[in-house]
Structure formats: C-alpha cells, structure tokens
C-alpha cells in the first residue's frame, strides 16, 4: 500500500510563507500523478493543486500565483510552496496519490 507523509505545517501570519513536503513510498514515484488538497474547519475537502508525472502543475484558481507545486523524483518527495498566505488558507493539508491519502498537516494563518 502506498504511504504518504506530509510535514511543514504550522502557524504563520497573513502574508507569510510556508513550504509543505510530502514523502511518498511504496509506489513508482517518478510516474505518479500527485495532488494537494485541504480541508478548512466545517468545510468539505477541496483540491489545491496537481503535478503530473512530467512536472506540469495545475492550480485551483484560489491559489494561482501564490502557491507553487513541485516534485523531486530523486527524493520521492512533492512540495507545496505557499506564499502570501491568507486567513482563508487555514486548514489541514493532505497529499494524495490515486486513492491514497496522507495523514495531513495543519496550516494556520492568523495574526
């Protein structure tokens, strides 16, 4: 079974930055299509960004221009660089591959 482990969450002020990481194991990482999702308190989980096996990024309009999704195939790791964070970016961030999810990492944007 594929294993995904997120890290890098925390508390940051509005306008700040964070970088999330997702280490993926037990899969052919280099050909995997990977994605980030998030879930705010009391809301449904929503898609944030996807990166294809060839490294092409796709973004939700709400994060376009502020977030950058990348991957390092040598490290079996996907990243989400989040800049100019807003309070509405608060939530638990999850990485996903096919039907498998990580445990999530909490991101809180607050002054």
Name a few traits of the molecule:
single chain, 11 strands, mainly beta, 7-stranded mixed beta sheet, globular, 111 residues
Question: How would you describe the overall organization of this protein?
Answer:
The protein is mainly β and 111 residues long. It has no helices and eleven strands. It has strands at 3-7, 10-12, 18-25, 34-39, 46-51, 57-59, 67-72, 77-82, 91-97, 100-101, 105-109. The strands form two sheets. Strands 2, 4, 5, 6, 9, 10 and 11 form a seven-stranded mixed β-sheet that branches. The protein has a four-stranded antiparallel β-sheet with strand order 1-3-8-7, with no helix packed on it. It is globular. The protein starts with a strand and ends with a strand. The model has no long low-confidence stretch (mean pLDDT 96).
Strand fraction band?
over 45%
**Low-confidence stretches at least 5 residues in length (pLDDT < 50)?**
none
Percent helix:
under 10%
Mean pLDDT: 96
How far apart the termini lie comes to: 40 Å
* Basic shape: globular
- Count of runs of 4 or more consecutive helical residues: 0
Radius of gyration: 13 Å
Give a count of the beta strands, DSSP E runs of length 2 or more.
11
Largest sheet: 7 strands, mixed
Structural class of the secondary structure composition?
mainly beta
- The helix/strand order is EEEEEEEEEEE
